[in-house]
Amino acid sequence: MEVKKATFVVSNTDYRKCPDTGLPEYAFIGRSNVGKSSLINMLANDKDLAKTSEKPGKTQLINHFLINDEWYLVDLPGYGYARTSKTARDQWQKMTHNYMLHREALVCVFVLVDSRIPPQDIDIEFINFLGRNGVPLAIVFTKVDKQRQQEIAATVNSYKYTLLEDWDELPEMFMTSSMSGYGREALLNRIEEINKELENCQ
Ligand code: GTP
Ligand code: MG
Fold this sequence. Notes:
Blueprint: E1 6-12, E2 25-30, H1 36-44, E3 62-67, E4 71-75, H2 86-102, E5 106-114, H3 121-132, E6 137-142, H4 149-163, E7 172-175, H5 184-201
Parallel strand pairs: 2-4, 2-5, 5-6, 6-7
Antiparallel strand pairs: 1-3, 3-4
The structure holds guanosine-5'-triphosphate and magnesium ion (MG).
The site of magnesium ion (MG) has 5 residues, from helix 1.
């Protein structure tokens, strides 16, 4: 899919205030600093669209970006950022969980995990939370430019092994690098495919 137009629309703390256009949306979630905002910029081909930072805790709201006037990319705050108060973490959890569970326009959640790090409880718990609640998800391995292929394969296998403890079927998985653009086409093609399936259902 070609991205011809990408625009920031709005930031929110409450899913009920998000755009009510009914257009399909794809959300990006994962630990703070895993590369959610960078991936959105890579997909949109605009390095200044979503704000990124070397320090964790940059994205703090639900951010909608409209792509080709047809669908949204949604950037979310990361989880697992230890240097915030419990109140802030509780607020985060409430905001994102409510968004995930109740946002009707949400078509798929891309859960981002670092391709250099073996499965962490917090990621597996989040994936299981989505699965238990019937929220469609895919796993996106980030920062593959920082890692040798063999080591990436080991991380992926370790995820598969861990997830199969709880699930009969594995979610789709994508390898990406926002730095090199690796995986851009595969992700955009998958989104296009889902968009077409949705159109055919209408
Ligand atoms: P929060 O908003 O704080 O939750 O973080 P985030 O998940 O949105 O991460 P962000 O996109 O801000 O990126 C965090 C850091 O990782 C930045 O310094 C990015 O430049 C770096 N980064 C992101 N993706 C990649 C990648 O694919 N390769 C490399 N080498 N660095 C990356
Ligand atoms: Mg961010």
